[in-house]
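for ur thesis appendix - Branched-chain amino acid ABC transporter permease. copy paste whatever u need, i formatted it the way the template wanted (i think)
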Amino acid sequence: TVEAPAPSLPENPPAARRLRRPLLLALMAVVLVALPFAAVGWTELLVVVEIFLLAVLGLDVLTGQTGQVSLGQTLFIAIGGYGAGLLTVKAHWPTWIAAIVPAFAAAAVAFLLGRAFLRLRGYYLALATLGLAVVTQAVATGVGKVTGGPSGLVGIPSLSLFGWEVFSDLSNYYVLLVLCVLGGLFVTNLRRSQSGRALAAVAHDPQAAAMLGINAARYRTGAFVVSAVFASLAGSMYAYYLRFFSPDVINVTVALSIVIMLSIGGVRSVAGPVLGVLLLQGLPLVGQSFALWQPLVAGLVLVVVLTYLPDGLWGGLRKLITGLRRTA
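the 3d part is after this line
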């Protein structure tokens, strides 16, 4: 008699697959919590990276999920920064309330602008939102009695949460880490939800989406509102961290840099914006003389990435890993 071969165990049992994701998330959480202690002296850079990551994550909802390119994120950063500063310095509001109220104001402004601006397509929309960035910088510089003019708004207090003053770089890092994690979870869950699928349909083919009963204008406006709220929170946290806010924070170069960060890293993911922000914000660390060439280097990197890696650095890295796995 011929004995039947013993059944082989599956290489990757379902239980192992279920445990892999929680273990990876736990490992990532440990790394993020311990990162300031491992990278001593870089905490200030990490805080700035987290602030810009909030703005880029918001733009990813609009650009990555609906395909609309906006250069006007600095308008909503200004609403958050100046709003939080004026409400705390002039009206003496609690700092956490002074960060939430401008976010609602930014959402209202985005709703009104979105109904008109998002009818445009392609570079027409980009030029219109670039105009918003130019106007924002000009108004912040010209209305000196309110904003402090070119000298900026000074004396902004640090964020205070239930009696705890978020003053040091380390405390700002952890508060912003919580905000970035919540923002990343929101963007990821939105992309996987029914609304995310509707946004993807609008980005791919608005006419076909309309035939399926999807209101393209409503979804585009909603994405614009979400991106504005993210940018407003980033502006408020920037003001609380520096205890100062000026037109230099919201100039046209910053507006372009936010779009470049998202394009370099890659859209429709959280890792892509993280890579883009780290790369662009980390360039000045190479040296003071190199920092003067940052716009040129960023532009060259953007051209190379868009030419050879249309999905961004993270998309290219994922394709490389997938190819190596198939080869193995």
